[in-house]
Amino acid sequence: MMRVSESNTTEEHGPGRPASNHAAFAQVARGYYAPIVALFTATLIISNICATKGVEFLGDHSVSLGPLQILPIATDGAFFLFPLAYILGDVLSEVYGFRATRRAVYYGFAALLLTVACFAIAIRLPAAGFYENQEAFRTVLGTTPRLVIAGLAGYFVGQLLNSATLVLIKERTKEKYLWARLIGSTIVGEFADTLIFCSIAAAAIGIDTWQQFVNYVIVGFLWKTIVEILVLPITYRVIAFLKKREPTYAPMQIAPLQA
């Protein structure tokens, strides 16, 4: 009778697993990486939706400096949120390294693709007779292929460059000069992201002159970089908090881009 009981236990709970009266579940890895990646991904999705709206400040004024248009200021509807994605990318790179950040970028890339696919399906579904907002729904969520490509390309290249730059600087400076790698990586990543996105998406959001384009790129780049500098005290505290509470935080024995 004992052998039958052991056999039943093995079949029910699996080899090497203790018998229990409760249901079986896998353990979720503890730490702060998962919630940061979730916020990082959500920020990217929301930003790329908001970016479909063209925004103009001081539209009643016209100031130019040679070929550069100073006023009005042209940007997109995600200007206030998108810097957060790079701040979170900096936190991930500084605390968890390039490989972990690259994995988060892949997650965000996949989530953006899924978002675009779901929007495309929802737009093409037959609208109910009582639903009167089909065209508005299509206008807001039916991002053009150009905007989709712009957002994905800019995000993918910019975030990877941001992370790679930060960890390479950290390899030389170790725990010193955090401000230098945060700002330096942002300059590289944000410039690449802004230039790629604006080059592809400008016409899609209504920017049709060279002056507006240059203004769009410069304003976007300067704004995101300035925000990064202004929130450095907060970024410092978040990074310090995570480093103290992540038990595996320690010097690595491999190259920074492999860590």
SSE pattern? HHEEEEHHHHHHH
Outline the low-pLDDT stretches. none
What's the pLDDT, averaged over the residues? 83
- Assembly type: single chain
Characterization of the model:
The protein has 259 residues and is mainly α. Helices cover 65% and strands 6% of the residues. It has helices at 2-13, 33-50, 82-96, 98-124, 134-141, 145-173, 178-201, 210-230, 232-245; strands at residues 54-57, 63-65, 68-71, 73-76. The strands form 2 sheets. The protein has a two-stranded antiparallel sheet with strand order 1-4. The termini are far apart. The model has no long low-confidence stretch (mean pLDDT 83).
Furnish the topology, listing elements before pairings.
Layout: H1 2-13, H2 33-50, E1 54-57, E2 63-65, E3 68-71, E4 73-76, H3 82-96, H4 98-124, H5 134-141, H6 145-173, H7 178-201, H8 210-230, H9 232-245
Antiparallel strand pairs: 1-4, 2-3
